[in-house]
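User: Here's a protein and a ligand (magnesium ion). What would the complex look like?
Assistant: Let me lay out the input and then the predicted complex.
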Amino acid sequence: MERIFGRPIVTQEEMRARIRELGKQITTDYAGKDFVLVGVLKGAYAFYADLARAIRIPMRVDFLMVTSNKSRLKTSGKVKIVTELTEDIKGKDVLLVEDIVDSGLTAQYLVKTLARKKPRSIKVCTLLSKPEGRSIDIVIDYVGFKIPNKYVVGYGLDYQQKYRNLPYLAAVDMEEEQV
Ligand code: IMP
Ligand code: MG
């Protein structure tokens, strides 16, 4: 696994430090609020677990599971929620936790869909952002790392459902993978 993906593009140390900063910022911004941290599964699971433990205020945890109609590496933006929230988010301050924002279509769809449940506020936190991939205008409130337009795996992110357990982020070597 490590041979295929070579050097990490974000190391475990860099990840830990950045998540600590995000946690501090979110702790400050959401102090005193009725706060729900909503993770988007599966991709966000690793980031979510670390981020949640870096936030030092009382909060509820909840999850959505989505599948996207992605053929190979590109998302069509047609996401389907396959597992719904269990918390009632009406009147609450919701922070949606994503693994990566590329075109922005998934995040936009989820924000619109959750907004119908009338939360008091809804913001987005993503571990990774690929600004070059954006096809729509969307505000992402918290970004861990901006990365170039390369396909990455590890730390929750998959390539055809594998490599999510790689403990760091690495770019897929397209030649070896023969995509
Ligand atoms: P978007 O709708 O184009 O913003 O894509 C978001 C979704 O595409 C993410 O939640 C990921 O599941 C997937 N995705 C986009 N880029 C990558 C990548 O480099 N590695 C793994 N998954 C990715
Ligand atoms: Mg995915």
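Summary: The domain at 7-177 is CATH 3.40.50.2020 (Rossmann fold).
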